[in-house]
Amino acid sequence: MSKFYQSALDFNDTENVVNRFEEILAIPLDSVVQLEVFLQKESELLGQIEEMLTGHYIDFNCYSNSTETKKVFEHDQEVIEPIVKTYSAKLDSAFLGSKALKNLPEERYGYLVKRRKNAEALFREENITLEIEENRLTTAYFEHTGSLTVNWDGEEKTLAQLSPYSENSDREIRKKAMSLSREAFLVKEKPLQEIMSELIEIRQKKATNAGFVNYRDYMFKKYERFDYSPSDCKELAQNIATYVKPLKEKLHKEHQDALGVETYKPWDVSAVLPEQAPLKPFSSTQELIVKSRSVLTSIDDRFGELLHLMDDKKMLDLESRKSKSPGGFCAPLPVSGLSFVFMNHAHTHDDLITLLHEMGHCIHNDLKKDIPLHLYRDTPMESSELASMSMELFTMNQWEQFYSNNEELKRAKRMQLKSIVDFLPAGMVIDQFQHWLYENTMHTVEERNQTFKQLLKAIDSEVADWSEHEEWQETAWLRILHIFEVPFYYVEYVIAQLGALQMYKAYKENPVETLESYKRALTLGSSKGLADVYKTAGIRFDFSAETIRSLMDFIETELKELDQ
Question: What is the pTM of this model?
């Protein structure tokens, strides 16, 4: 495997890692100048450590069956990360204990102080041991799911490689693809449910140790959700059910009529119409990269240059293959100054969107990389996902580089808008499911599955008929890696999607000004709160009923224009 990240430290020499932290703790903190030297040295060291931890995480996901990458990754989880957590708490304590703290400029450092006070209040040394076990369990999840393959007419395929068949015009082929994929997860249900049960127990212990009634409330503080609350999420779920679910059901019924099927089954939801073939925007990985670079360059030269640099430096792993973790992500490498994109493409339209989405994250990372404070470069997911989801929509008018046929181009744009309507209810189901998991920790596996099914019924479309396949429906959450690896990371997608729709609406009216506002907002990193970041982008951090209703009206209007 190629070395795409820089190793400034020897993680096997833990004494040296500890000494680097001790050197920073030894800095006197009697003046503003000394505090700023402290922050600069801290940011430099944390950046070096993040680069290596991220590089090892990427290696493990790219080669999840490798004993070598697993050994390095587990060493990070069991040895290095506990050191970092312990010393991060010590650094917080030293910084906050300085008498010179009150003299730091409020405009520049006020939000930093607020966040460090929050981190200090949450830290419990006994939770470090629990997090080592938590990491072991999430690694086990990836080992189970990364090894999943099926036999397709004598050929071994990963689950990602089945995705094109879900769109096939032949109904039996669609059913076969869904059956193989869902049954593959059912084979793994028992160990995955056991992992989930253990994770819930460990996470509740962490919350209790930190003085919280439940893990949900603990994670809201951990994620620094200063701008909204659990009750806001419940209200958001209700607003999605009220204003988005009806539109999703309307679109599903229209699709059912167009397919000419009496009963709309789950394997019909992604189907193309009988006279159509699934969209195939690219035939090779290189074609995907070259055309995506052209699309991004047409928006901003630097955006396209980033993809070229990442490709040149082997910072892209895009194809699906056996023994590679599922999913996709963008990971910043702060020392290298670039990002790595990981995904599992199967030549579908969704794969094109995934790369453009992840490039939105890369662009965000590039715009904030010169922020001197490490903590300000670490952005909340609500602004990170705003960057990526907005990029999906900004690029729509450049998709003719993938679709020379005008009808296919219109189909692709329609798919994009419909995918937003499809996602919003599904996203809130995942969010509210996690609220329930950690508010009701003594539940059984059966109650867990049934609650997920009930939330689908309450929030999501009910047009598809799951009869005889209820087990697929109620265990569908097992496929959502976020629930296992990054709990409560999902509502951000919904919030950011609503923000991205606002961005797209503005972009259609004034692309130049909107793009500049977008870049200004992303340049802030996390030096400002979410409301300020969204305001700088020219939109509102708002998921009220009126905002959601008006955005669904906007999507309906856009869909009607595409149908003309």
Answer: 0.93
